[in-house]
Structures are given as C-alpha cells and as structure tokens.
Design a protein that fits this description.
This protein is of the alpha/beta class and about 550 residues long. About 35% of the residues lie in helices and about 15% in strands. It has 20 helices and 19 strands. The protein has a six-stranded parallel sheet with strand order 3-2-4-5-7-6, sandwiched between helices. Strands 15-14-16-17-19-18 form a six-stranded parallel sheet, sandwiched between helices. Bound molecules: thiamine diphosphate (TPP). Thiamine diphosphate binds next to helix 16 and helix 18.
Length: about 550
C-alpha cells in the first residue's frame, strides 16, 4: 500500500518500540512531527536545548538498552546537540538522532543551514545514514537501531531531507533486527576458569555492558553476587557505574573511578589477574592508562566486551573474549568455583576494608561555605532503595562517589566521559521512565546554567526531580587543575563565576527552592527538599571553594578575596 514517507517512518519507529522522542522542533522536519502528533502513538518531549534533548535520549537509551531517540533541526540544531553524540559515542550508549536537512536538490549549495553531516559527525557517531530515496526510509530506521545497539553500542545519525516526508513509498515497515548475543567459546571459558582458579589476588572490574545485560534480565545482579561469593573475588564497579554492586557487600572491592585514592590503588595494584567484565576500559578507569598499563598490561588481563574490534584495540589482553559479559559470568558459575577459592578471603577483605574506611562519613569543617560532604551525606540518608541519582561533570560529583554507597536497585546516570550539562536532562528522562520514584540530580554552579533550563521541561511534563546545586562561585574542577599545575598563580583566577540567586531562578520556573548557607542548615534543608513530591525542588547550596573536591583542599593560608 502506498503511503507517505512520514507515515512509513512513524510506523517504523513504532515497530522498534519507540514510545518517546525528545526534540527541539525544526522547520525541516515538521512533515514528520505532524504525522507523529496525528498518530499519537509516541510521546514527543519538547525540550529547551538540543543538548538537553540529546542527553535525555542518551539516558533513555541506557535505561532501556534500546536506542533513545532525539530529533533536532538541521545545522544549528544539530550543532547544539553534538555534545550528546560525543558523550554517547564515548560512553557506548545506544542512541538514534534524527536530523532535519535541506531539500535534496539544494544539498551542497550551502543552502540555509545546510551541512555535510557525514563529514561533521564522522568521529562522534557509529554511522551517518542519509535518506535519499523514499523507499530507503524504513530500511534506514531499522539499520540505525541495529547499528546503534549492536557490538559496541553508540549513536547513529539519520539525516532527513525536508522534501522527503510527503513523498510516496510502498511496502510494510522493516521490522527490528533480532538482538544477538555472543556466548564465550568453551575453550576460552575453560582457560578463564583456570586462570581465575589459579589467581591469588584477582580483581574483577564490572562495567557498562554488564549493566546493559541487566536491563534485559535483572537476575544478572543476583548472579554477580553469587559469582563473587562462590569464587571469592572482589567486585569493582567502574567509573560512573557504581550501582552494579552493593557498596556494603563484603566482596565490594572498591570503586574504579577517576583517580582511585592512593591507599586503595596501591592495594589494587598488588592484583595478579584483572578481569574486565563488560568494561571497555578507558582513560579514567585505567587511571590514565597506568593500571592496566597500555598497551602492555603489567598483569594478566582478561578483557570481556561484546565486540571483537575493541578487545585488543588499546591493550593486549592475555585472553580476550568478545561476548556478552553476563554469559561469561554465568559460564563461570556453571563451571563451579574451585575448592580452594577461599584462599582469597584475606585479599577480598583487605580491599573491602580500605573501601569501608573511605566511605566513612567524615569531613573537615570549612569556613568559606558549606563542605559539600555534609550535603551529600544528608542526601544519602533520604535516598530510597530504588532512587535515581544523576550528575553533571565537576568536582562536586567526587563527593557523591566518595560518600554515597549505591545499591543494585538504585540507578546512576551521568555522562561517563564527563560532559557537563548531562545531569538535569538525564534526570528528566529518568523521571519519565521511572515514574513515582525519587530522582535526585547533582550539579555545580557551572553546569547548572548549561542545561539547568530543562527544569522547564520537567515542569511541563510533570517530572519532579530534586536538583542540588553546589555553588562555589567557580568552575571548581578547572580551578583545582590550575592550582595543581601552577600553584603560584592566584586561586580562582580564570574560573570565577558571578551567579544568580539560584533559588529565585528556580522559583521563576515554578519550582520550589531553598538556599543552604551554613552546615547547620543542611539536615533541615535536605529533609524539606525530600518532602516536596509534586514539584521540582531546587536546593541551592553555598559551598566551600577551599574544599576543592572530596579528596583535596586548597592549602594556602590566604585564600579568597
Ligand atoms: C561541556 C563541558 N565543558 C567544559 C568542560 C570542562 N570542565 C570540566 S569540569 C568543569 C567545571 C565544572 O564546574 P562546576 O559545574 O561549577 O562544578 P565544580 O567543579 O565547581 O564542582 C569544566 C569547565 C566539560 N567537562 N564539559
């Protein structure tokens, strides 16, 4: 039956189980939106900035392990959204970005907002698919989802010329390609079991691909616990995936994030085997390529990642297994643990002991503002077992990783590669996908004004996050780097910020808000924030700049003007 391309595309998106698209409208694709609105089969979330729409789609993609979808206008709209593509590409997050385009006959003329997307996006997408012929539309959608979700997941751009939507096409929409999962070869599993049985001090890093497996099958979490207990191994969730293993479980070996504290990394480096289970391994996780050392690891490395291309790309593993990490873990469970697994109890306990001492809710007082540790520890008391926590990038986030012990039923979302501006949009996406559960977003005063305006989107769609702003009047992370490299230069110069009254800013949107000025305000303020359930709530915290991160203080005696 003949139909328009717009309808064919809408049916294709429906066939791929897409129930929500995040967008900033553009004149180039009104042909598609008008059909989507008419069919009313999916929810259009109209956002305030394409970065916001993109980060929402990325978060949605992670929550469903199905490519999240956003739709942006050509040229400038896409340019605004590129930060989310960059992040999804680095974070191995499945995402499809639909991009408006000029009419086909004007391509290459530098028509209004024309752009060569294949060139522009070549290093931040897995593929750019340009629809030229009406009959390609449905196949393009199916290929986009398949590419975004298979192997190492990532973003795919689909470019939609303005004049294509009303063209006619025949045929039924392409159906989704079946998701495939690779299992480990028997001989690799046997070798892995032998290596693990022989190891005295193994370290198991668990990362995003295991989390993705758990989206489809929650029992992955319980299996991970069983694996750690039966094989007596320490489990180390990696950078910005803290929820993979309960921080209070005795086999929790430590959080493998940016700059693991010295005592902990020194102990970890005594390991005689590292198994990266569903962790691609990156600069932050590998402690800037020093553990494991790249390209030749200083200890035997087993790398499990569902994409053969990645295994061996940077590091030379002793054993590489391009398979689903959940399948590998279950394979080990089926093999059965060796009788002498308990020989590792001391090693596991030692790592856990260091981790527990780091988690201690202790901090030093500060007199130039509230120590953010006090705020984060108070939030931790109120977090529900199924709460979602999202963060932006910035030093304030170090307090979250130091002081909040996440559990397996909680959800943590952020740009893993550290793009500022991810926090608030990801909170909106989480609130929509997990209605009725707590959503807490932590941002700095820098990130707050990058995409914090998406609080308007939260209000528009009835999402009620608690937004906690650490306002130290500076781009603190960069101030810290500057201080560490050039300690003789004045602290804060080049990173200082003059901020609005964030509580007044929040109220102007219709949110509730309070300001915390002293440590003595913290307990009452946070408890009031958690009592607000029917509106977004902003907690503006005037925080110390001297306490640069959860681990580091500015040391000079003469500090602030
Ligand atoms: C989009 C983007 N721009 C710039 C940076 C570089 N950057 C990393 S952290 C940071 C400062 C963050 O400041 P703030 O949000 O106030 O948090 P703080 O570090 O003070 O806790 C900057 C500018 C980045 N990571 N992402």
């Amino acid at each position: 039956m003949s139909k328009t391309v717009a309808r064919q595309m809408a049916e294709s998106l429906e066939a791929h189980d897409i129930d929500r698209i995040f967008c900033v409208p553009g004149e180039s694709y009104v042909g598609l939106t008008s059909v989507l609105i008419e069919r009313n089969s999916l929810q259009l979330i109209v956002c305030r900035h394409e970065a916001g729409a993109g980060f929402m789609a990325a978060a949605d993609g992670r929550l469903r392990d199905r490519a999240g979808v956003c739709m942006v206008s050509r040229g400038p709209g896409l340019a605004n959204g590129m930060v989310a593509l960059h992040s999804a590409h680095h974070d191995a997050t499945p995402m499809v970005m639909l991009i408006g385009h000029v009419e086909r006959r004007d391509v290459g003329r530098q028509a209004l907002q024309d752009q060569n997307y294949s060139v522009l996006l070549s290093d931040i997408t897995k593929q750019v698919i340009e629809i030229i012929d009406p009959d390609q539309a449905t196949e393009a959608i199916a290929r986009a989802f398949h590419t975004a979700e298979s192997g190492t997941p990532g973003p795919v751009a689909v470019v939609l010329p303005e004049d294509i939507f009303d063209q006619q096409t025949d045929g039924e929409p392409d159906q989704p390609r079946a998701r495939v999962a690779a299992a480990p070869r028997g001989q690799d599993l046997d070798r892995l079991a032998d290596m693990l049985a022989a190891a005295e001090r193994p370290l198991i890093l668990v990362g995003g691909a295991l989390l993705a497996d758990a989206v489809h099958d929650e029992s992955v979490f319980a299996d991970l616990v069983r694996f750690s207990e039966k094989w007596v191994v320490p489990i180390c969730p990696t950078h910005r995936r803290p929820q993979l293993f309960d921080a209070t479980h005795p086999n929790y070996g430590g959080y493998m994030g940016i700059r693991v504290p010295p005592a902990h990394i020194a102990e970890m480096k005594r390991a005689d085997l590292m198994i990266a289970l569903g962790e691609r391994l990156t600069d932050p996780v590998s402690q800037s390529y020093s553990f494991p050392t790249a390209p030749e690891p200083q200890l035997p490395l087993v790398h499990v990642w569902p994409d053969a291309y990645e295994v061996g790309r940077v590091w030379r593993p002793e054993l590489g297994i391009p398979a689903s990490p959940a399948e590998v873990m279950r394979g080990l469970l089926r093999c059965g643990a060796p009788a002498e697994a308990d020989k590792r109890r001391g090693w596991v306990d030692g790592l856990h002991e260091i981790h527990r001492s780091l988690l201690a809710k202790e901090w030093e007082p500060t007199d130039d503002g509230v120590n953010f540790a006090a705020v984060v520890c108070e939030v931790d008391k109120h977090l529900a077992p199924d709460a979602t926590v999202t963060t932006d990038a910035g030093n304030f986030a170090s307090f979250i990783h130091r002081y909040i012990g996440f559990g397996q039923k909680q959800m943590f979302l952020a740009s893993v590669v550290g793009a500022m501006g991810s926090g608030m949009p990801m909170a909106v996406a989480a609130g929509l996908r997990r209605p009725g559960t707590q959503v807490v977003v932590f941002v700095g005063d820098g990130g707050a004004l990058m995409t914090g305006n998406e609080i308007a989107t939260a209000l528009q769609y009835g999402v009620n996050p608690i937004m906690i702003i650490s306002d130290n009047s500076m781009y603190g992370t960069i101030g810290m780097h500057s201080y560490m490299r050039y300690p003789e230069r004045p602290f804060m110069d080049g990173t200082r910020l003059t901020n609005p009254d964030f509580a007044a800013w929040a109220r102007s949107f219709g949110a509730e808000a309070i300001t915390i000025r002293e440590e003595s305000d913290v307990a009452d303020g946070i408890s009031r924030a958690f009592a607000v359930k029917t509106r977004p709530m902003v907690v503006h915290c005037l925080t110390s700049a001297v306490q640069m991160s959860a681990w580091r203080r500015y040391e000079a005696s003469e500090v602030l003007p």
